[in-house]
Structures are given as structure tokens and as C-alpha cells.
Amino acid sequence: MNKYNAKSCSVAIGSAVMLAFSSGVLFADELDSRYTDRTGNLVADPPEDESQWLDPDVLVFAYSPVEDPAVYEEVFAEFTEHLQSELDRTVQWFGVQSTSAQIEAMRAGRLHVSGFASGSVQDAVNMAGFVPQTAMGTEEGMIGYRMAIISRQDSDVQSPDDLSGQELAFVSESSGSGYFAPRALLYEEFDMLPGEDYDVVFSGSHDNSILGVYMGDYAAAPVADVVIDRMYQGGRIEDPEGWLHTVYESPLFPSTAYGVAHNLNPDLQEEIKQAFLSFDWEGTMLSEQWEEEDQFVEIDYQQDWEISRVIRQGSQTVAELLGE
Description:
By secondary structure, the chain is of the alpha/beta class. It folds into 2 domains: about 5-140 and about 255-320, D-Maltodextrin-Binding Protein, domain 2 (3-Layer(aba) Sandwich); about 145-250, Periplasmic binding protein-like II (D-Maltodextrin-Binding Protein, domain 2, 3-Layer(aba) Sandwich), CATH 3.40.190.10. The protein has 13 helices and 12 strands. The strands form 3 sheets. Strands 1, 2, 3, 4, 5, 11 and 12 form a 7-stranded mixed beta sheet that branches. It has a 3-stranded antiparallel beta sheet with strand order 9-6-10. Strands 7-8 form a two-stranded parallel ribbon. The chain is globular.
């Protein structure tokens, strides 16, 4: 997990859900009417009228909002130079201040190439015509994390069915993998609702949930799997092989998606994707900032973001059933 995302991995998958229910600014289940998906891959296709294709001499590139965009301008400087060289045109950095501003910039045609944080990808696709192409990863593919519901090996909770009537230690009501994801997936896959089929307590953090299960204080808890290894490496728990049981494990939660505006010339879209895939990470600022990843890899939005769509729909359904 990279240095930036490691700090926010626990809320990555929940961010779209939280935006949908708290702000009401970003929430779209399907493509906006201005876009057309003729190929059935859930992503906007280029306009049929070729006169509407964009082929700008200056491409505007942005990374997802961070506390100090200037820092990431430096981190991406070598990649930006590579992009300019491969495309033989100027690439201009755009330091976005918020996800809503990033989406609006692409929707308005002011942003051509961008990295959208995982939780905002669905809204960027549906509301701004974003076409996801690549993500950071390794030769084995995109790096992400999973939500795991854990218990002890000597516990009575060994399967999802065993969660019935038990008390689950959720992280907090603002946590993605510690709240939104388990609530949604337990309903979508096992027809289980909080307060009816299982009880909920809040631990306050992933660390507390893991320690609580480890010490036998909690019967089970949903956590981001990467935190388990971090705690073991830090000497805070014994080797999980000796005590931890995985009751349920989610599909891989995707990472930041990099891609283009749908109305760029299709040839340019392909050139941009190949520029990402051909970038050599060795010795660059990207390799220093993201220590586990070493390349950009091709992604499939329809397949890779299915878990996000399931969680969003499940969260909405659970909230409606509980009258929230």
C-alpha cells in the first residue's frame, strides 16, 4: 500500500457512499444523459459526431485531491515529462482542491487526463464522461485491499451464518471497510441486517477491532486486511496464522484510476493509455512515493469497480430498510 493511500485505505471504498448520503453532491447510478454507452461497458463512448472530438495542443492533467497538490505536482513531474514526450504536446498540471471540482472540470472540458480516487470513479464515469484506463500496480495487476470479517480460530464464529445473533465490532460510522462495506455486503450476499440479524458495537479504529478479536473481546470484526499485516509487523499481535480466522473476504477494492475524458480523439485516448503503460518507474519520484507499485497496469472498469457498485447499492438499500 502506498504512503498516501495507506493512510486512507480504510475509507477508500466508502468515500463514494458517504458522499452520496451526506453531501448529495456526487451520486449517479448510471451515465448522465449527455453520454452514450454503445459498447455496453458502462463507460461513455466518444461522440459519434467526429467534429465533437477534442485534440488539444495542451493537455490538462490532474491527480485526485490531496492536502498539498504542489507536492504531488513534483511527484508526477517525471511522468508528466514522459507524457509530453510520448504525445508530442504540452501537458499542464492542474492541482484540484476537491473531488467535486475535479469532476466538474472534466465535465466542462477543462480536464483531459486525470487520476480519480477509487471512491469517486463511479461518479466521474457517470457524471463527467471519465474513461478509466490504468491503475498503479505490479506485473501481477492492480494493487488494492480487501475487507475481511475476522474471528479467532477457537471462536464459535467460523462462517457468515455464525454471525447471526453475534455482536460485530464495526470501526465507526464514517469507515468504508469498517462500516459501509460490511453492512452492504452482509445484506447483499447473506440477507443480514444490523440490529436484526446481528448487533453492532463500534471500536473506533481498525487497530482496536483487530486487537479486540485477538484478545477475545469481540466475536468478530470487519477490517481492512492490510491493517492486520501492519499490526503483526509492528509487533502488536502474534502471527495471524496461529489465531486468526477469516469468516468472509470481499473482492479486491480498487485503487485510484487514471484515464481520460470520453470526447478526446480516440487515437489520442489510446496514445495516452500506452504512455501510462510504457512509463519506466525505476528511480522516479513515483517509485519513492508508492513503494509497492512499480508500473501502471491496464484496468477494466466494468469488472474492477463492480464491488464499488454493489456496496453503493447495498448501502442505499440497507439505509432505506432501516429508515435512516
